[in-house]
Amino acid sequence: MAFLPKFDSAGLVTCVTTDAVSGDVLMVAHMNDEALRKTIATGEAWYFSRSRNALWRKGESSGQTQRVVEMRTDCDQDAVWLRVEQRGAACHTGRHSCFYRKVEMAGEGGARLVFVDADRLFDPAAVYRK
Amino acid sequence: MAFLPKFDSAGLVTCVTTDAVSGDVLMVAHMNDEALRKTIATGEAWYFSRSRNALWRKGESSGQTQRVVEMRTDCDQDAVWLRVEQRGAACHTGRHSCFYRKVEMAGEGGARLVFVDADRLFDPAAVYRK
């Protein structure tokens, strides 16, 4: 059975990346054909940045790389699930996961954010300065 | 801290839904403002179907509903992570998760799909016939 990813009009599939140990969702990102190929070939996570319009090896600036334990695809092959060993933190804010806040009801149909994990594993200002 | 979802040009955020017990990724879908509000207000998962261009309560046809245990959002608030109690199967093919196949290298840079979980918990032909 061939892997035939169904790219959207921008040439991308959605990628969900989880921590292979804890199961936590670390991040949601996108991959183009080249990012998929490089991820499969190297066993390291590569993505495509929509804001920078560029291929991107996870951790190339921060050192916070992701080793792929397993890659899956969904029923219609327009999404990919990576289970990874995360080195350090996945989030550019320095948190282990990008999903470090939960959404809680706040009356009148509103909602507020509450920190689940505020700890920073690195200092973004130090890591990303050029 | 207010929850201020960052909708894309189509008015959607990406939603990753995981099984609160196993941690498995069940599905990737989208939510518009109304789907988010209804999910928060009712504690049941609502999505927006891009193919049908319609709001959709998960399980309204199949009975395979999702009770929300926790909702999180990511660093830039353009994605949501739902941890749910899945009743039956999340996938329209009858499998528990939409991610029932893994992607494996197949030499020459190619890749093939291998079933991780082929079992169907319901018969789609019976459930979705009108």
Overview of the molecule:
2 copies of one chain form a homodimer. With 130 residues, the first copy, chain A, is mostly beta strands. Chain A has a domain at 13-92: Ubiquitin-like (UB roll), CATH 3.10.20.810. Chain A contains 2 helices and 8 strands; from the N terminus they run ββαββββββα. In chain A, strands 2-1-6-5 form a 4-stranded mixed sheet. Chain A has a two-stranded antiparallel sheet with strand order 3-4. A two-stranded antiparallel ribbon of chain A has the order 7-8. The A-B interface holds A 1-3, 14, 16, 18, 22-25, 27-28, 37, 40-41, 70-75, 79-81, 91-93, 95, 98-103, 105, 109-114, 116 and B 1-3, 14, 16, 18, 22-25, 27-28, 37, 40-41, 70-75, 79-81, 91-93, 95, 98-103, 105, 109-114, 116.
Helix and strand arrangement:
The structure is a homodimer of 130-residue chains.
Chain A: E1 13-19, E2 25-31, H1 33-42, E3 46-49, E4 54-57, E5 66-73, E6 79-86, E7 101-105, E8 111-115, H2 124-127
